[in-house]
Design goal:
22% helix; alpha+beta
């Protein structure tokens, strides 16, 4: 396991990237499947709430890829 730090402001556990010293949260949001959805209001609203909850609780790591279909657009 890598080095860990705790962000005092939001109590989010983070790990240090050795080559840059950057801190990344140990918990993030993966967007494959759940976010590969129709781009209409009914489908997007619940997913927007998920992203909002992540950000409201100090999260900042969102994993996305063009391989995840429409997830990257959400």
């Amino acid at each position: 396991m890598g080095l860990q730090a705790v962000d005092i402001k939001n109590n989010m556990a983070r790990r240090i990237i050795p080559s840059t010293g950057e801190l990344l949260p140990v918990i993030g949001l993966g967007t494959s499947r759940v976010f590969d959805t129709n781009l209409n209001e009914r489908s997007l609203n619940p997913r927007k709430e998920i992203v909002k909850a992540l950000l409201d609780h100090g999260g900042s790591l969102i994993d996305t890829s063009p391989m995840y279909g429409k997830a990257e657009e959400v």
